[in-house]
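Protein modeling request. Please complete all fields; requests missing the sequence field cannot be processed.
Requester role: graduate student
Desired output: 3D structure, C-alpha cell encoding
Chains: 1
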Amino acid sequence: MYTTINEDGILNNYAAEPQMYYAEYPAIWEQRKYVLQGLFATLMVTTLVLVGLSVS
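Delivered output (56 residues):
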C-alpha cells in the first residue's frame, strides 16, 4: 500500500493497482455455453411472467 502525508499531517492511503490484461475473445464452446444460458434465462423469465399473469 502506498501512503503519503500532506502538510497538515493527514494520511492518504492508495491501494495497490492490479496488473492490467486484455480480455480474450471467447472460444466457440464458450459462445455455445453463453447461448444456452441466454435461452435458459429467457425461458425462466417467460415462465415467471406467464405464471404471474395467470395468478393475477
